[in-house]
Amino acid sequence: MKDMETDRRDLEDRAPALFEPDILLASQVVGAQHEDTPERRLLAAVLERALLDAQGRVSPGKPDDMRDALAWFASEDEGVLSFHWVAGRLGIDPDWIRRKLAERRRLPLAA
C-alpha cells in the first residue's frame, strides 16, 4: 500500500511538467520581455499602418502614401520614430520585416 501512495505522490509532483510545452514560441518570449503599454500599442499601430500603406492596401488611390511608407522602411535613420527606432522598441528585427515586406511585394524595397 505504501508503494502505491509513493507512486501517486510522485505522479502528482511530475504532473504539471507533463503539460508544459516542449518549445517556447517567439510570441511568448516577446510578451514576456515587454510589458503591454499604451505606448507599445501605439508604436505597433504605426508599424501596422506603414505596412498596409507600403502594400497599397489602405489608400490605393494615394501612391504618395505607398512611396512614403516604402521610404520609411528603407531608411537607415535611427532617430525617434524612424523605422529602426520603432522596430527596436517593439523588439522586432528590422531586416526581417524588410525581407517579409519585399517577399509580399515581390519588388525591391527602395522607393
Molecular structure report:
The chain is mainly α and 111 residues long. It has one domain (2-105). The chain has helices at 2-18, 26-33, 38-54, 63-74, 83-90, 94-105. The model is unreliable at 21-32 (pLDDT under 50). 67% of the residues lie in helices and 0% in strands. The chain contains six helices and no strands. Helix 3 packs across helix 4 (63-74).
Task: Identify the notable features of this structure and list them briefly.
67% helix; 6 helices; 111 residues; single chain; mainly alpha
How would you sum up this structure in a few lines?
The chain is mainly alpha-helical. The protein has one domain. It is built from six helices and no strands.
Topology (elements, then pairings):
Blueprint (H helix, E strand, L loop, with lengths): L1 H17 L7 H8 L4 H17 L8 H12 L8 H8 L3 H12 L6
Helix pairs in contact: 3-4, 3-5
| Number of individual domains | 1
Instruction: Bin the helical content.
Output: 55-70%
The radius of gyration is 23 Å
The 3D shape can be described as elongated
Give the amount of beta strand, in percent: under 5%
Poorly predicted tracts of residues: 21-32
Please trace the helix and strand order, writing H or E for each element.
Answer: HHHHHH
Mean pLDDT: 76
Gap between N and C termini:
76 Å
Number-wise, the strands total 0
| Number of H/I helices | 6
Structural class: mainly alpha
Biggest sheet layout: none
